[in-house]
Amino acid sequence: MLKNLSMKIKLALFPALFIVLFLVLGIVFSYYNNSALSRNSVSIETDKSVQQLLKGRISVYQFLRAPNIDTAQKVRNDFATLSKNVLQIKAKLSLEENRKIADSILSLSDNYVKDFDKFSNMRIKDFQNSILEESPEIKSIIADMVKTGLALEKELDKINISASQLRDDSFSSLNSNILILSIIASMIFIILSILISLKTISSLNSIQQGLDSFFSFLNRETQKAELINLDSKDEFGQMAVVINENIEKIKKGIDEDRKLIDETIAVLGEFEQGDLCQRLELNVSNPALMQLKTVLNNMASNLENNIDNVLKVIEEYSHYNYLNKVDEKGLKEHI
Fold it and tell me: Quick one: which of 27, 36, 141, 315 could link to 170 by a disulfide (CB 3.0–4.6 Å)?
């Protein structure tokens, strides 16, 4: 996959990956932090509800000491506040089990107030009539209220403990997930860095080997130039394609030049032995060698013509015809 990506994209992977991981960490942190804060809020609210329950029960004791309409209304108001707080807590609860406990608390609170209403008016009348001792019926109702109050406190403690545990679990999950994501991010960065480094080094080594082989070919140390073996689509791959194309062109030109030089040596060898009929036939892309070919072929033609003319005149001389002579036009020095 990496070999098909350009170096720009490969290098851009690091900031892009950093941004993605940063966003993921932010989302994870926000989710678990909000969850933990919400559960912490529930824990705080349950603490307040426990205090509100104690406040309500104290209001009951205050009513028993001074039974009147105001202290009775104070009890009802305290337990109404408790029920309101529990309803707010219930809306924030995520576990069905805790929601059922909240319903149980509301039911117990309602029963507590109903029990209080059963004897409060009677107790106010008794107190107004200077009857200070509580009747057996009132004592029985108060005993039931005590049980209900203890049950209320127990149920509130359950929610409080559960909320605290969930809050601690959220903070623990937050720390664990951030640690895991940090480790994963570090591993991805390290692996990606190693892969890109190895790929870059491999590409550079391939280019170096190809160039070393080509220079050895140019210096006539080897008879063959190896092409760069690199099939990636990045800048190194594009560079390798351009270098290979030029290696092919230069190799083709050198091979053509060598063939023409070999042919030239062969033709000159024939000239040395007196055969001036040989000519250079190969065509190459090197302008200088093509010019040399033309000069050598022209020289061979001129030498052949001049020698033919000389031989022709000598032959006539051998028949005692001394009238003709060799045309010296365009000739100089030894010829």
Answer: 36
Residue 166 to residue 154: CA distance in whole angstroms = 18
Q: What Cα–Cα distance (Å) separates residue 112 from each residue in 25, 63, 228?
A: 48, 14, 91
> How much is the pTM?
0.52
Q: Tell me: the pLDDT tens digits for 108-155?
A: 889 988 888 888 888 888 777 777 777 788 788 888 888 888 888 888
Q: Is 188 helix (H, G, I), strand (E, B) or coil?
A: helix
Please say whether the beta carbons of 203 and 230 come within 8 A: yes
Q: Please write down the long-range contacts of 92-99, taking CB distance under 8 Å and 24 or more positions apart.
A: 92/38, 92/41, 92/42, 92/45, 93/42, 93/159, 94/166, 95/162, 95/166, 97/162, 98/158, 98/159, 98/162, 98/163
Give the whole-angstrom CA distance, residue 57 versus residue 60: 5
Buried b / exposed e over 220-250, threshold 16 CB at 10 Å, is eeeeebebbebebebebbeebeebbeebeee
Contacts of 93 (CB under 8 A, 6+ apart): 42, 99, 102, 159
- Round to whole Å and give the CA distance between 20 and 28: 12
Query: H-helix or E-strand containing 62?
Result: helix 7-65
- Helices then strands, counting H and E runs in the chain, come out as 6, 0
